[in-house]
Amino acid sequence: MNIDIILTDPDGTYKPDDIIRGTVTLDLTSTQNIQNILCKFVGNEETSWATSESLYDERTNTMRLGIVHYKGEHNIISCEEQLAKDLILPIGPHDFPFAITVPKRIPSSYSSNNGWIKFGVVVSIQNDLVFYEKEIPIHVKAPINFNDIRGEIQLEPIVYQNEEIIWHCCYAGDPVTMDLILEREAYTVNEPITFKLEVNNKSDREISEIDVTLTLVVETTAAAPRRSRKYYEKLLTGAKARGLSHGQQELYSFRFQVPDVIDIPNFIGSTLFRQKCVLKAECKIQDSDTKLDVQTELKLGHIPVERSRRITHPHGPVRRVHSSGAINRPLGFNFFNTSDNASAPPADYQPTAPRTTDDIDNLPPSYEEAIRATFDARKTKKD
């Protein structure tokens, strides 16, 4: 039996909800009793790499240098369509057309030195004695649709803050503070990314330069023999700004734009791959080992949020603080208290009007009075 899969568009790139059309041709050299013919759309991902590590040698009770092979495997998707069943086919070619829909919420095809994500159309044929299977690759380009991840993206103004104390040999000096002011944290490719950076140099040192970068970071995960990760970084764009003398404060404006020729991979539905775009601003302080930086994670996509699904925040920008080595730490913004002069209630409560005589006469008994009344009642009952 010879199996051939012919696509209507063999060189095409497919996206979610597209229909893959084609024909399965069986060329039989003898009469076959076909029990089942299935057409499947499948997606798999795999990661692998080798690293040199220190390993314990039980024979010599010593540590030695060895090679550890890491690997991860995961089946992303598998959906099938039955083309035929219970057939007796004579000698010769037989055609079975198919049309299978590319599922939603799947990642794009991807390949790197440490792993890949692949999709394909698989035809499975079962006869009385043998199970036949053939697969052809399918290239999937899944755009990042912000409407599918609306709850994961920040579309309102936000501020990130950080400060560093400039230390001298015997005492702590004044700080350098930096605020990263963003209109939002989600942008489509080829859309201008505008933001501001406010730097206040209260120290006695000069800031020689301010460096701002937008970097794509791809995280690759392996599960065996234990969980391990590798990172690949690619600079998307960047800019430099002049420094500040001590005692100066300045507000810088930036405008970045990621061209659409740069591929931003979509890893939705993947468990072994993840990507993020990191916007980082760093102050280089002259004659000091201290580094001041503030960074946050931006979402870059291809399909913007529909206007009907946009949510306007009624309380203005949400302020968050960033310390070196961490991202997105809340500063304690209160979403519910909108008053500018909010205060706590008085510690000692005072009634707004004096009690009347009726109120005093109808007061409930005190704890001691209640205990005494219960005791007297029991004593009277016993007597």
TrEMBL record:
GO BP terms, alphabetized: protein transport
- What are the UniProt keywords, alphabetically? Sensory transduction
Name the domain of life this protein comes from: Eukaryota
Residue ranges of the region described as Disordered: 342-365
User: Which InterPro entries does the protein's record reference?
Assistant: Arrestin-like_C (IPR014752), Arrestin-like_N (IPR011021), Arrestin_C-like (IPR011022), Arrestin_domain-protein (IPR050357), Ig_E-set (IPR014756)
Occurrences of domain Arrestin C-terminal-like (ranges): 172-305
Cellular-component GO terms for this entry: cytoplasm
Tell me the SUPFAM superfamilies matching this sequence: E set domains
Homology family: Belongs to the arrestin family.
Descriptive protein name: Arrestin domain-containing protein 15-like
